[in-house]
Structure formats: structure tokens, C-alpha cells
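Task card 7
Instruction: Convert sequence to C-alpha cells.
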Amino acid sequence: MTMITDWGMDQEVPAGADVAIAGSGGWRVVYEVAPGRASGWVEHTVDSLAPRSSPHVYDFVFPEGMVEGYAPATVYYRLAATEIYAAFWWKPSAPFDLGPNGNKIAFLFNGGGASGGQQFLILRRDGLLHVLPEYRGDFQWRSPNVNATPVMLGSWHFVEWYVQLSSGTLKWWLDGALQGHHTDVRNDSAFDMFQLSPTFGGNTGARKRQTDHYYFDHLRLSIRLP
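Output:
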């Protein structure tokens, strides 16, 4: 596999509908308004305990009253691959209101228009990491079937996520421990984008009961070309 980005999130977050993050080596952000909006915001801030490339981290803020179905912002990287490995450091604040449907973390998008689809990694109400492919004929949760390690809120975690479309292989790890290993996740369309788009819940209309945060520190992507 070929590493295509190894990013420490050292750059300020520009505001805009779809703008490049200068100095990031290809990352872009969709972040249209200043901090304080009801649907959340993202900040470039400092955490001296960030484990990989302190002190700078990205802080995605979910304000009290935020309605389900939104992400504070979307930070993304375009790519072309049938096999991908993503690794990043992530910390959910403590306490954290997961609402009725959990809080998403990251997405992998497949090209091919409406037939392509996506899959996402999410922290569900059971305190575990799950993956949901949303592909034609496949909208089935993939749950941790190797280890079921509860996510410790307020702590940094190392998350790894691997997918190979040709074999249907899907794996994800938490702090080095394999959580899920499935062999039935296939798609004819290659991956074309990785997103940090930490969306609150689904579409039931629930609102955040408190202000919460997802922090990210350093992100690496490796791919095998199609």
C-alpha cells in the first residue's frame, strides 16, 4: 500500500463552503460560518496531552440544542482506491450525549454516483465502535465480533479502519485491539473520499442535551490503487 497523507492537523481551519486547508497537503473543509452556530463548529485548538502530534488538535463542537443529522464541519481528502487503511487519534469528551442513535466519527465514500454509496464508523449507545455500510442491497450493521472494547470517554484513542473491496474485508481496531472482522462488505465502485464528518445521530429530531466535543489529532491514509 502507498501512504498518501500523514497529517498532524497543525493548520488553522478556514471558513468556507469548500476550501483547501493551506499547508495540509490536500485536505479540504466544508465549514461555512463562524463559531457559535446552532449546528456546531470546528476549532483549531491546543491539547498538550494529544498523543501523536501535540499541541494542536481539531475540536468539533456539538452545542447544546443541536439537532440530529448535522456535523459541525466536514474535513475531507479525495482519493482513488479499492483498498484503504485509515488511522487517527480521537477523543470524545466526557460526559457525552450520544442521543438515541449514536454519534458518527468518519466516513468512506465510494464514487459511481447514486450507486456508489458510503460506509461510516460510529460510536453507538452501547459504547462500542460499529460500522454501517450503506450500499445497494446492503444496509446491515457490522458490529464488533472479535473484541468489544468500551470506548473510555475523555481519553485519547487510536482508531484504525481497513477495507478491501475485492475480498469484502472490513476490519477496525481500537487502541491496537481488533474489534470487528467481516468478509462480506463489497462494492463495485472504488473509494473516492475519506471524511471526518462527525454527524450527531440520525433523523429522529433529537437534540443535544449538552455541549459535546470530538477531538482529532493526526491522521494517516494509505491506499492500494485501483
